[in-house]
Protein 1
Amino acid sequence: MSTAWTAILLAAVGTFAMRASFLAAADRLTTLPPRVERLLRQIPPAALAALVVPAFVRPGDAVDLLQPQLPAGLLAGLVAWRTRNVALTLVVGLGSLLVLRWLGWE
Amino acid sequence: MSTGEFTAGIRSILPMLIGVVPFGLVAGVTPVAGGLGADVGIGFSTLVFAGASQLAAIEVLTGGGTAIVAALAACTINLRMLLYSASIAPYLAHESFARRMLAAYLMTDQAYAVSINRWAGPSAGLAAGDAAGLERRRHRLAFYLGAALTLWCSWQASTVAGVLVGNAVPDSVPLGFAVPLVFLVLLVPTLTRAHAIVAALVGGVATVVGHELGVGALSVMLGAVAGIVAGALVDDDHPEPDPVPT
């Protein structure tokens, strides 16, 4: 088997194990202690922000607040907050990034 | 299975495909451009089915790295799936093992986020024992599958398209930026309470700090955990006599 296919199979097994982990044991969960529930409630905002924030403030190899991704991201955030509309947010975010780059801001 | 909830799941994920399809194209183009062959791109998309981790593994492989290093790079990026699994497990606990494993295979950031937004609303309490509550509970998986299967099909189709078109996507289109924008739309509705805002702020900043310190792909997981702990510390929904020890 090629190196690439070995990597695919190992990554597939590892990734599925992580996806299945708590779901596999879900039937043995009884009522959750409030302390655990409180932790679980934090997962969506914390995990999503961990994916979003670096793309806005660190698009390259170092933190950089003077690049067009940050204003484009903030503008898109405003649209997302006011409209909750995915398509409009994408259009405004990508559009403003294109315009800022077209104006010569890299 | 509720057709209504299944359709609602499809509807909730449709607008996100604007961010998913270009990403899938890249997942198909990259291995071909790197000389790994079309089967590798399709193998990653069907078996691993997790965009960012696929690209990380492909980068290692095209750079001459070993299979173990490539798989570890992919798995590190996917560690956040442990958190998603823990988060949705209580909502699907009543489903059969086989159905829960199907839900696990189909788990993505987007399917997770739209589902938890729908299930964790004020009217979707876990403890609802009345008939209406049981009815809603039975239909949770339908909503999830509507969203997750739609994303799965789009991902596979766009990967195949990427494999076929090769390097025909112009570099001037900043499609990579569409991915964080999709997560942004999912993030905003979760920020309704102070604890969520703290979790997001700490999670985002800690991830950036992790990248700066050279933690690499582990940064997302470590940053998210920092945000979860910080949010839990200020979350006073269920005040207890003793504060949580840290």
Protein 2
Amino acid sequence: MAGALIVGILAGAGTYLLLQRGIVRVILGFVTLGHAVNVLLVLSGGPSRRGAPIAGARGVPADPLPQAFVLTAIVIAFGITAFLLALAFRSASETGDDDPEAA
Amino acid sequence: MSRLLPLVFAVPLVLAAVGVPLRRSIGSSRALVLAGALWLVGAGGWLLWATRDGGVVVARMGGWPPPVAITLAGDTFASLMLCVSGFVVGATAVFAFARGEDRRPFFHPAALVLTAGVGGAYLTADLFNLFVFVEVGLAASYVLVVSGAGREEARAGVVYVVANLLASTALLAAIALLYGAAGSVNLAQLAGVGSDRGTAAVAGVMVMAALGIKASVVPAHGWLPRSYPLAGPAVTAMLSGLLTKVGVYAAYRVGSVVLGGSSGIRIPLLVVAGATMVIGVLGAVGRNSMREILSFHMVSQIGYLVMALGISGATALSAGVFFMVQYIVVKASLFLVAGAVESLEGTGELGRTPGLARRRPVLSTAFAIAALSLAGVPPLSGFVGKLGLVRAAFDAREYLMGGVAVVVSFLTLASMVKIWNGSFGGRAVRGPRGRQTPARLLVAPGLLTASLSVVLGLGAETLWALAERAGAALADPGAYVRAVSG
């Protein structure tokens, strides 16, 4: 339940930011949305199905796959965010505005 | 033999890494890109030969046992796509060399990384790795799209990056849900879960939807015509042959293996296919430059591919595979010719280059062949593909779909005639001059790809036999699933 709430709030905030005009807000929106998906990935391992995220109470080891997924996704998101920020910087220095659609 | 499978994408990645320190030396950089393209064609050919009896070449990373290992699997469909992608990379790279477009920063390493990502996406039998490979290819394409200097490119780049990033995020979320519902991302273990479990079916459809954004199907098509025409001409040609098709290819795989047999997606897919065909071709009407018109037709043709997936069954999927392979060649050819016109005449606007057919007969012939093939005029390859698709539609009693496909073909032809009249026909008047570059190398890639369309049309039987094998394997993925699950 707490997990679902976190995903919902992050996804909602991310979507809101994506719909803004300035590119910096769009980037922040992607960062937030990316976190929503990361939490979703961790949850998809499911504490109820495969034990707690760390070696659980009964000594059942955690599902390692979602954690590997999240790690990969974080690395990719990091690289793309850096690229987007560079793009925003160039766009701003060419147009003098952080709104790429501004004429 | 199968242990060599990872080399298909590892070699271009290594070439890209070598290319970064060598990027100031234009000669060796160009040699590296051509080597990567040839490698992909060669790897596809080898795989085609290795799977000639309908088998599947499987490699498990790290030698782990089947359910644990990350699995790569190459079948006929994957090898065909590898061959044609390598060919397109090679032809568009030569065109970029002739235009000097490859002098943009990091062009060569990015093209090689794109090649590697696309090659990996064709071979992976694991949804999470599909996401990773698509992301690798996309990251490289971001660099290619935005590396142009101008303000327009920067704006197009933002649209392109944001749309594709959103699609990637949606794809990752969908894969997470599928993992949560089915407990695996391995295609073999996901086989048929779409028809067994409702939650898994919803997640599978989400995966298809995310891939649909990448393939630019209606209603998620807006990003493509707004970004492709503004990228560099060689880059547009390169991406047109590779990235949207990866989305369609993955949708074929997921639709066949994960959602195989569930009839619930048939009607939505057909509705989307019809809308994509019609809206794409109508969107082209109001456009006034060659590459803008061609970008809208790209959306339209994706509809044909989705139609084959919606009809499903061996006949339709075979026709879909045939259509996809020849269409990649034809589309690359059209974009190469449009790019050559822009380079030689300084503009791709209709009506600004009258009489081009008289002044540049070879280039105009290449355009005419590719345009007629796109519209589906016999004996060119587009005709064979569309005939197969329309016949499959009528056989499956989807008369409306078949009718829409035929009408859209006529509209496509009308649109191609409009380009011809606007840019090639008429009396020869000197248009605005572009740069004086050696014209032969600019024209050659377009002519080469256009003649391949003739070859694929006249000698369609060879490719048709391969496409039938691929289509049968998609309609009944049992052999693929058994090979992957070991």
